[in-house]
Amino acid sequence: MTVLDPSPDFLRGDPHPAAASVPGWLPGATGPRSDPAPLLPDPSPVRVLGTPLLEKTDPALLRELYRRLVVGRRYNQQATTLTKQGRLAVYPASTGQEACQVAAALALHEQDWLFPSYRDTLAVVARGVDPLEALTLLRGSAHTGYDPRATRTAPLCTPLATQAPHAVGLAHAARLRGEPVVALAMLGDGGTSEGDFHEALNFAAVLHAPVVFLVQNNGYAISVPLTQQSAAPTLAHKAVGYGIPGRLVDGNDAPAVHAVLTEAMERARSGGGPTLVEALTYRIEAHTNADDATRYRQEEEVAAWREHDPILRMELHLRAAGLLEDRLVQEAADEAEALAARMRAEFHADAELDPMSLFAHVYAEPTPQLREQSAQLAAELAAEAEVHAR
Amino acid sequence: MSTVQPSPTPALGRTAAPPPAAAVRTGSMAQALNSALRDAMRADPTVHVMGEDVGTLGGVFRITDGLTAEFGPERCLDTPLAEAGILGTAIGMAMYGLRPVVEMQFDAFAYPALEQLFSHVAKMRNRTAGKLPLPITVRIPYGGGIGGVEHHSDASEAYYTATPGLHVVTPATVADAYGLLRASIASDDPVVFLEPKRLYWGKQEWDPSAPVEPIGRAVLRRTGRSAVLITYGPSLPVCLEAAEAAKAEGWDLAVLDLRSLVPFDDRTVAEVVRSVGRAVVVHESTGFGGVGAEIAARVTERCFHHLAAPVLRVTGFDIPYPPPMLEHHHLPGVDRILDAVARLQWEE
Fold it and tell me: Model's pTM, two decimal places?
C-alpha cells in the first residue's frame, strides 16, 4: 500500500473484500455518525493584525507578506490600466483581495498544486509564474500561457467551481502514490452555489483527499449580493454538512489568511483530510473593467472597505510593532514600480502568434479532417500574404 | 445523373482478417469489455476504474465484475453518486499521471458531467498547448432496445461528436468491444466510448490476442454491389439483417461499420460509396442534426459524381425517447431500411 497514513477505512485491511459479513445498516441509530462540533467554523473571523498573535508571528514572514502585498496591488493597478489601453482584453482585478492572493501563494509548498479561478492571476504570479505568461488568457493571446505541470498551477478556470473537483482528483492521485502533495482550490462566494462545489467537497471528504478549498467571499457575485446567494450562517458552515472542518478568517489580514491556510494544508498533508476556508474580503474594483459597480453597490460600503484595506492595515500594524522600516517600504515600492514598468514594456509589444498553431493541440495527432482544415488555413494565409506583397 | 458501374470487387476498406483458431473464444460483449478492463489494469498500474456501483457490485451491467476483488477498491473505485464529481475528479487524477476509465451508468445519467466533459476534458490539451493531455476514457452504455424506462435509452452520440477534442468510439461486435476499449484506454486523448447496451449479451467468437487496431478505421462487414448501408454500434445487426432480407428484392447490399465516429474514416467511406454508387446511413438516434446528417453531407461532398441517388438517412424519429412499449416504432428496423433502399432511384 502506497497510501499515506492514516488511511481511511476503505483503504485499510483486506484488499479483496467480499460482501460485508456484518450488516452495515441497521435500524435504531441514536445520533449522528460523527461529532459535528469539531467541524464548526471559528465563531468569529481569525485575525492576527491588532491581536496578540502578531507578536507570535515570524517577522520575516510578515515582511515578506507586506512586500508581496505592495507588489500585488501595483500589479492589479497596472493590469487594470492595460485594459484601458487595449493591451488586455479584460481584467478581473483582485484589488482589495491581495491578502488572500498573496497568502495563498505563500502557503503552498514547491510540490503543491494551485487551482485558480480567473480572478486569481495575482496568486499565480505570486507563486512565481511570469506575469506575461499568467495574463495570456486575459490578453487574449493564449488560453494558458504557462506550463501547468512545471509550475504546478492549473489553468485559470472560468466556469465557476469546475476546477474544484480537479483539485480533489489530483490530491487523491498524489495520496495514492504516497506523495506529500496538497491541492489548493481558489473559489469565490458565487462559486459556492455551483453544483461542482458541492460535489468536490463531498468527494474530497469521502476520499479523504489532501485538498484545501479557499473561498474568497467578497460579498458579490458580479452584482448579486451574498444574501441572495446563500442562506447559510457562513459559507464555512457548509463544510459541516460534508463532514469536514470549516474555517473563517479575515480575508484582509494577510498573516491570518496565511496562518489558517498553512494549518489546513499541513493537516491535509499529514493525512487529516480536506478543509473549507472562508476568507471575508471585498472587491474594491468592479467585477471587471467592463462592469459598473455603482449600479449595485453603495459608495459608503466601498469607503468602509477602503478603511479596512489589507495593505494599509498591514503597514499600520507592522509599523506599530516596529517591524517595518522605511527602507523596506521603499524597497517594496521600488520592486512594485519595476514590475509595472516591465508589464508596460512587455504588453505594449505586439503578441507574436502563429495561426497554424490552432490545429496543434486539439488531439495528440491531428485527425485527417484537421489536417485538411490546417491545409485550408495555410492556403488562406498564403493568399493573404500574396495580396500584401502586391 | 452519372451512371455508376457497380464495382466487381466492392470489398474496399478493411475487412477483419480471420483470427488464429487457437486463441478464439466465445463470449458476450459484456465479457469482452470486462476482459479489456482487466487486461488494461494488469498491463498498466496507472489505469484506474471509477464510477457508480462499479466496485463491490461490478456495475449494473457487470462490466466491472471482479475488478475490485483483483485490484483493490482504490483501482476500481465506488464513487459518490455524482457524475460531474466523478469526471471532475478523474480529470485531476489524469493531471497527476493516472489513466482513469470512468463509467457513466446510463446514457442520460452522463448529462450532469457534460460541463466537465465539454469545458475541460475536451479542451484541456488545447487550453494548455499540449502540456496537460487527459487520457480519460468515458464509458457510456447507450441506446435503446432493452425495454428501459425513460432516461435509460438515449442514443446521445451527436452531443459528443459535436465537441472538438473528444474521440467518439462505438463497437458493434464482441471483438471490437475488446480491441477498441483497449485502444481507447491506451489513447493519450480523451475517448467517449459508447457501448450499445442492447448488444451486451449476444455471444460471438472473438480473439483477445488479435492485434488491437487503432481507433478511426471503418470496416466493411458485408460486401455488396447494389448499395451500402453505413452504420455503427447498435444498428449494425439490424443492417446485416436488412442486407440479408434485401436479397429477396434483388439488392446486394454492403454494410459498413464505422466503429469510430471521431476520427471519422472519410477515406474508407468514400471508397465504398464510390464503388457502389448508392448509400443509406442508418442510426437509431434522432435524425435532425445527427451523425447521419454529417455523414450524408461528407459523402455528398466527396462522392457526388459517383452517386446514382441522394444519400438517404434512416434514423429514429425526432422525438424524446419513447416509453419502452412503443420503442420498436421509433427504432429503425429492417422494413424502414428496405423502404429507404427502395427509394434509391433504381428505375433508371
Answer: 0.93
Q: CB distance A165–B112 less than 8 Å?
A: no
Q: How confident is the model over B178-214, as pLDDT tens digits?
A: 999 999 999 999 999 999 999 999 999 999 888 888 9
A296 classed as catalytic:
yes
Q: Is the pLDDT of residue B9 over 80?
A: no
Chain B 126-155, residues with CB within 8 Å of chain A CB atoms: 126-133
Window 262-281 of B: residues touching A by CB (8 A cutoff) are 262-264, 266-267
Please answer yes or no on whether A199 and B85 come within 8 Å at the CB atom. yes
Verify whether the Cβ–Cβ distance A148 to B128 is below 8 Å: yes
Complex confidence, ipTM: 0.94
Every domain of chain A and the residues it spans:
37-290+297-348, 355-389
Nearest to A202 among B85, B112, B129 (CB): B85
The CATH label, of 3.40.50.970, 1.10.10.10, 3.40.50.2000, 3.40.190.10, for the domain at A37-290+297-348 is: 3.40.50.970
Query: Which domains are delineated in chain B?
Result: 27-206 (3.40.50.970), 219-342 (3.40.50.920)
Q: At residue B268, what is the residue type?
A: T
3-state secondary structure A57-75: CCHHHHHHHHHHHHHHHHH
Residues in A closer than 8 angstroms to B114, CB to CB, are none
Q: Which of B88, B95, B127 sits opposite A199 (nearest CB)?
A: B88
H/E/C letters for each residue in chain A?
CCCCCCCCHHHCCCCCCCCCCCCCCCCCCCCCCCCCHHHCCCCCCECCCCCHHHHHCCHHHHHHHHHHHHHHHHHHHHHHHHHHCCCCCCCCCCCCCHHHHHHHHHHCCCCCEEECECCCHHHHHHCCCCHHHHCHHHHCCCCCCCCHHHHCECCCECCCCCCHHHHHHHHHHHHHCCCCCCEEEEEECHHHHCHHHHHHHHHHHHHCCCEEEEEEECCEECCEEHHHCCCCCCHHHHHHHHCCCEEEEECCCHHHHHHHHHHHHHHHHCCCCCEEEEEECCCCCCCCCCCCHHHCCCHHHHHHHHHCCHHHHHHHHHHHCCCCCHHHHHHHHHHHHHHHHHHHHHHHCCCCCCHHHHHCCCCCCCCHHHHHHHHHHHHHHHHHHHHHHC
Task: For A184-226, write each residue's pLDDT tens digit.
Answer: 999 999 999 999 999 999 999 999 999 999 999 999 999 999 9
Is A282 considered catalytic here?
no
